[in-house]
TrEMBL record:
One of its GO terms (molecular function) is guanyl-nucleotide exchange factor activity. The gene is RIC8A. Chaperone that specifically binds and folds nascent G alpha proteins prior to G protein heterotrimer formation. Also acts as a guanine nucleotide exchange factor (GEF) for G alpha proteins by stimulating exchange of bound GDP for free GTP. Its main location: cytoplasm. It comes from Nothobranchius kuhntae. This is Synembryn. InterPro entries: Gua_nucleotide_exch_fac_Ric8. GO terms for biological process: G protein-coupled receptor signaling pathway. The keyword Cytoplasm applies. The keyword Cytoplasm applies. GO terms for cellular component: cytoplasm; plasma membrane. Pfam families: Ric8.
Length: 162
């Protein structure tokens, strides 16, 4: 209730200015991690990946806009690209393959009409050539997800670049 006793409406989505601040903060964190090894170590020590993974679980929540989602994924990509320990933590402890598989399903709007059959939600039974193309945003999110999946499934011991 406000000062006059009227009930306030619950806020289901963050204000635009809040989203903008979050996006700028995520961009800054990504830049700092990319260019500062001490920050990479501290991010691992502080278990930053756990917080990011928690927010990634909210992929169906409309509260977070595209840019927040994109930079959460970019941050996850950087953490897994730069730190083998974070890569292993996401893959094993945080069930990263399942988490990111769910992300990919949500991003591409996939549903599973049969056990081994996928379709785009709302387009079940539509021939692939008649499906509308993915949006630029869907494509960018899918690319980030696939990059992270590569990081957490690539075995650095079996393949050496030389």
């Amino acid at each position: 209730e406000d000062e006059e006793g009227a009930e306030k409406e619950p806020c289901s989505a963050l204000e635009n200015s809040d989203q903008e601040v979050i996006v700028e903060a995520l961009k800054s964190i990504c830049n700092i991690l990319l260019h500062n090894e001490t920050a990479q170590v501290r991010a691992a020590e502080l278990q930053l990946i756990k917080g990011v993974a928690e927010r990634l679980k909210q992929c169906y929540d409309p509260t977070w806009g595209y840019e927040v989602h994109f930079f959460d994924l970019r941050l996850t990509f950087l953490l897994t690209a730069l730190r083998l320990d974070v890569r292993a933590q996401l893959a094993q402890e945080l069930h990263g393959i399942r988490l990111l598989g769910n992300q990919l399903d949500a991003t591409l709007g996939l549903c599973w009409p049969e056990t081994l059959e996928t379709a785009r939600a709302g387009f079940e039974g539509t021939p692939p050539e008649e499906l509308p193309p993915l949006s630029r945003e869907q494509t960018e999110l899918a690319v980030e997800i696939l990059k992270i999946l590569f990081n957490i499934t690539f075995n650095t011991n079996k393949c050496k670049v030389g």
